[in-house]
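User: My collaborator sent over this chain with a note saying "see what the structure looks like." That's all I know about it. Can you take a look?
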Amino acid sequence: MPMQQDIILNVENLKMYFPIYRGVFKRQVGDVKAVDDVSLYVRHGETLGLVGESGCGKTTSGRAIIRLYKPTAGKVVFKGKPVNTLHGDELRHLHQKMQMIFQDPYASLNPRQSVFRIISEPLAVHQLVPRNKRKERVAELMQLVGLNPSLMTRYPHEFSGGQRQRIGIARALALNPELIICDEPISALDVSIQAQVVNLLEELQKKLKLTYIFIAHDLSMVRHISDRVAIMYLGKIVEMGEREEVFNNPYHPYTQALLSAVPIPDPEIEENRKRILLKGDLPSPANPPKGCNFNTRCPIAEDICFQEDPPYLEITPGHFCACHFVKPENPHSANIMNRQKEKENSVQAGKPVN
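Assistant: Without extra context I'll predict from the sequence alone. Here is the result:
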């Protein structure tokens, strides 16, 4: 891990379980394990991309980190302060430094409030700007995100999706935060608008020295904007490392399958490369499989995968992975193509498969 003074956010063994109740007396019969033992860190000024398919717990992780949900277990430390133990004024002060941009700009803005009220509401709640200067601050924030300040008297329904997301970004910037959790901020927008919003986020990061956790399932966009990448599957992080290291040298079978699905613009390479097709559907987080969470869909799963949960290890400096077959002395031993060829050769030779 980097030096402690370089880390703005450290998450250890974060869990977020939602109870399942049944019957007339609402007896708890289980839990939905939306986030199950997540550990990660974020350095000052960087963008950590959090990637995974729908339902894997990305959004829940972000909301638990910022304390919109109270975590079931685990530790979240922001600038040396334990987030999960804060209450009242301390928690409100924390939210000045940690903000969130929500996925759906059509649902995250109050349709009954004008743009001025939406953006100025954090200023009023935290009493950071006097009432007579809030209009000036809102105009400044709107200019910062590329909106005309003369539109502050209008309502959300009078704006396009891209403009609404810019309003949400302005609201998140109102309190001068240091860390912003971007919860799929472009997934609800047209493709033509997505690049504009991402470019805006990058400009704001450089100008205001922001730190991002960028939640997404678009691997191409994550590769463009992120400094490091964490791959999430069924409530757990299975791989994390520097962006180019993860994209060029994926260790975990799930990461390899995800990257094989990303189209390549070169038609010759695209035609000759082999896709890794995963069978089955994502298991229910209310009843995750025993052992490795990925064992029901993994092409190279063996007996140990159905019995023991793999340890989350640092395989090479800064590159973490949770797979029984990935060891520091042999990082690429879980390569799907190689292991499938080994199995085929062993079967043809009449030898037992390990």
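A starting point for your reply to your collaborator: The longest strand covers residues 27-43.
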